[in-house]
Amino acid sequence: MEKVNILVIGAGAVGLSLAKVLSEKFEDVVVVEKEESFGRHTSSRNSEVIHSGIYYPQNSLKARLCVEGVNLLYDFAKENDVPFNNCGKLVVATCEEEIPELTELKENGERNGVKGLEIIDRLKCRELEPQIKAIKALKVDSTGILDTHKLMQKLATIDEEQDAFLVYEMEVCSIEKSSNSYIVKFTNDEVFEANIVINSAGLHADKIAQMVGIDIKKHDLTLHWCKGEYYKTSKIKNIKRLIYPVPTTISLGIHLTVNLAGDCRFGPNAYYVDEINYAMDETHKDAFFESIQKYINIEKDWLQLDDCGVRAKLQKPDEKFRDFYIQEESEKGFPNFINLIGIESPGLTSCLSIAEEVKRMLKN
Ligand SMILES: Cc1cc2nc3c(=O)[nH]c(=O)nc-3n(C[C@H](O)[C@H](O)[C@H](O)COP(=O)(O)OP(=O)(O)OC[C@H]3O[C@@H](n4cnc5c(N)ncnc54)[C@H](O)[C@@H]3O)c2cc1C
Predict the structure, then answer these.
(1) In the beta sheet, which residues pair with residue 117?
(2) Does domain 2-46+149-222+321-363 match CATH 3.50.50.60?
(3) Which parts of the chain have pLDDT scores under 70?
(4) Pocket of ligand 1 (CB under 6 A)
(5) In CATH, what number does 89-141+224-313 get?
């Protein structure tokens, strides 16, 4: 049986960040990942946007860790040559009824500590983004995009330089609490004993919590999977900023992102699913077209299927908001077991601040 000090389950952006931050302070950090490499799920199937923190309720973990995470992520990208572009974004109102939402977002963002938010009129919008149809917009300067693959690659390199181990093709299938540690078993019959376990298993984090003995129904920690698809086009050029509609209750709306090569991509939509299946068809193409053409002129046949991802949501279809769940589980009878559940957007933006939060918990 292998003995380790800190066992992190899951090598997505969050698990890799945990290994970086924790191995600066603690000995013997090991990340186990069921796939053959890092970042095979949500961390490589998203919009790659560094969010500002305007959307989340004041004092929520999402608000705090997003605002903290933006700066950590830009600094990390600068120091480690991870390609990024702090291009900013416009949240656009396309009809009168949407204007109050812009004001609400601005006020909410300011309460969360987001700097430099400005509501701009039609003329200014046209000056900044001539192709965009908007009667007003909220200009958000701290938003940006980054290359998530390079981010994870760099994190993995630093992890290993700091003597954290990344072990692939290791799928956790059971966890048992013993007197002062946890016995973790894998589908390949390996067994690890860990002093501290951190559950960063993304879409399966609720199942991992269940394995140790936490009643996820009673504690309302069941994850609900919510798929998001993307379309791309090569027909639209020269958009400089990211363009967002006003948000819906379950997503930020079908937005336009421009990747580091300058190509336009639209999405994601949002619908709850029962299985993780990354196949795509054109069922939702009409709905995409309807949403997009409100803020930019486009032809339906310009849209080509791109890719998709699945959100790990604690929020049920009829709920308004659920926060990240980041908890050391002594109160439930599992000391030194830390759960990270419902790490949906802005989880990429917050990957390093989530890791700092966990480090603070361990120090306490
Ligand atoms: C469509 C979409 C768009 C998004 N856009 C953005 C955005 O623009 N900006 C932003 O900030 N956030 C965004 N997000 C959210 C962001 O992508 C996630 O919050 C973040 O990637 C979560 O990282 P993670 O490491 O927790 O999860 P993951 O990347 O899913 O990693 C979890 C890992 O755990 C592993 N694992 C699971 N079970 C086991 C097991 N039993 N044993 C071993 N390993 C296991 C998995 O294989 C996986 O590699 C988006 C999400 C989606 C779906």
Answers:
(1) 140
(2) yes
(3) none
(4) 9-15, 32-35, 39-43, 45-49, 51, 171-172, 200-204, 228, 268, 309-311, 343-349
(5) 3.30.9.10
